[in-house]
Target: DUF8069 domain-containing protein
Amino acid sequence: MASTEDEFLTQDIYEEKAMLIVEQLLEKGTIEMKHDEPVLHHVPSGARFESAVNMAHFHKGWEARGEES
Model:
């Protein structure tokens, strides 16, 4: 179960932090992005986002639920 501290961490994701999270997820293969599209694809869930901040928030929530690929 996610702690209160985890909840605050997911609420405080600004652009720079979101970009770092997205870059890490791209390296792990959790997120894919086609070179000709500005859309981030969350591989395990199939969700798609155009915003790094939205993707970072989504992924943190997805992790908190304990979903696995």
